[in-house]
Amino acid sequence: MAEAHGCVLVVDDDPRVARVYAEQLRNAHTVRVAYSGTEALDSLDDDVDIVLLDRRMPGLTGDQVLERIREQDLNCQVAMVTAVEPDFEIIDMEFDEYLFKPVTGDQLLTTVDHLLHRATVDSSLQEFFRLASKRAALEAEKSQTELEHSDEFSELTSQFELLRDELRDSLDELGDDEAFELALSRWD
Questions:
Q1: Averaged in consecutive runs of 10 residues, what is the pLDDT profile of the chain (188 residues)?
Q2: Torsion-angle region of residue 96: left (phi > 0), alpha (psi -120 to 50) or beta?
Q3: Most buried one in 51, 59, 137, 144, CB count within 10 A?
């Protein structure tokens, strides 16, 4: 996948963390920085492609900023970059990726590149990746027993598998695309 250039908004109430992320991204992307939820919303416009959003901030939280981004129908991808361990409430959140702090520069760059690419694909495939991200975040933090006893996780898994199968069927109709099939198989 060729690397694309994008506009990234880094949102974190810890100025040191925000500056480090910005510096790690600046050589490959245009970067804006906000130190609060309010600043983040003020910094958002149609030029922003990716938002790297801390969940736990005083005042307007990352969760609230995410809700406002989606309410405003801004066409950007959002990665939650946080130390907050995910609980089943993330299933209803409309983020595109969930990263656990501490995050390396390589992880940031890879995530931004993936999100820029995802923004160019069909909405069904974008939804597939959102579901996959939520599923992976919960599987990383929850015990097998907790997952097995969660109706929310069961529904998430059902949605994920249904969408995966629909995408595979569409792929079969279009012809064999080995790279796409490999991407889907990663989430089996």
A1: 78 96 95 96 95 94 95 92 89 93 92 90 85 93 95 95 85 55 49
A2: alpha
A3: 51
Beta strands in 7-145 (DSSP E): 7-11, 30-34, 50-53, 77-82, 97-100
**Encoding tokens for residue 168?**
């595979």
Please list the residues that pair with 82 across neighbouring strands.
100
* Residue 4 DSSP one-character state: -
In whole angstroms, what is the distance from residue 18 CA to residue 148 CA?
37
CATH number of 7-120: 3.40.50.2300
Positive or negative, the Cα torsion across 187, 105, 116, 4?
negative
pTM here is 0.83
